[in-house]
Amino acid sequence: MNDVKIGEILRPGSGYEQRSREETVRARFWKTARKAAKSIPFLDEVIAGYYCALDPATPMRVRGTLLAALAYFVLPLDIIPDFILGLGFTDDVAVLMAALSAVRNHITPAHREAAKKAVADIDREH
Fold first, then answer.
1. What is the pLDDT of residues 29-39, one digit of tens each?
2. Residue-wise pLDDT tens digits, 86-97
3. C-alpha to C-alpha distances, 112 to 14, 36, 107, nearest whole angstrom
4. What is the reported pLDDT for 3?
5. Whose CB among 13, 74, 119, 123 lies 3.0–4.6 Å from 28's, allowing a Cys bridge?
């Protein structure tokens, strides 16, 4: 997946696009995270990014970038559909890594602590 495509995916978008993405992410995130738990080795960072994206104290541009990446993650049909065993989350991983790298300084210790607890809950479910 090339940088140009990732850059297009991670555009924060308008206020309307951000609200739409937030609704999609809120509705589908946890189901997708559970499904991807074994496929994404940095799931704790993805979940911390989720909490950062929903935090009203996070700058709008950062929220927009994270919501764009998380929306790509939760939508089942993307460049490599998520249902393809062994490959389904590879494009999602690239997009998530790019977004998390770009906004890492905005993910707070509180976001990471909440993610740590959530990962422990996901681990207990498996």
1. 999 999 888 87
2. 555 677 888 999
3. 27, 19, 7
4. 52
5. 74
